[in-house]
Amino acid sequence: MTTITVPRLPQRTGSAYMNLKHKQSFDWPLVEVAAVLHLDNGKVRDARVVLGSVAPVPIRSTATEQVLIGNTVSDELATRAGHAATEGAVPLTSNGYKVPLLAALVRRTVLTAAGQADLQP
Fold first, then answer.
1. Alpha-carbon gap, residue 25 to 91, rounded angstroms
2. Neighbours of 61 (CB within 10 A)
């Protein structure tokens, strides 16, 4: 393979990728989130959210997408999206701490993809 062609995103589309690590350099992510939001006057028309480092392979969170689609992006909506991403999570005995980390990271990633500053930790 010598070339990969990625189509240009439509106008009014925001995307973001974020991860949390123990150390910010040379460490594996504890959790990671990628989001693409197609916006129309602040309202989410379509969304794709993928979660990483929470399963053996990256997984698409359709529950999170369903919370977002049709709604105006706000801190409250982003928080609900984070909770949707973790609903039904069954952590292993030593990694239950990842559940709240993932919820917070989904919130931050959604707000960043929507072009809104994340002012809260």
1. 25
2. 24
Which one, of 15, 61, 62, 5, lies nearest residue 39 by Cα? 15
| Token code pair at residue 17 | 């990728």
DSSP symbols for 45-80: EEEEEEEESSSSS-EE-HHHHHHHTTSB--HHHHHH
Query: In sequence order, what are the residues at sequence separation of 6 or more whose Cβ sits closer than 8 angstroms to the Cβ of residue 42?
Result: 72, 73, 114
Indicate the CATH number for domain 13-113: 3.30.390.50
Residue type, 31: V
Query: Which among 38, 30, 102, 42 has a CA at the least distance from the CA of 77?
Result: 42
> For the segment 94-106, what is each residue's pLDDT rounded down to a tens digit?
999 999 999 999 9
Q: What pLDDT digit, counting tens, does each position of 46-96 carry?
A: 999 999 999 999 999 999 999 999 999 999 999 999 999 999 999 999 999
Calpha distance 84→86 (Å, rounded): 5
Cα dihedral 18, 23, 27, 30 sign: negative
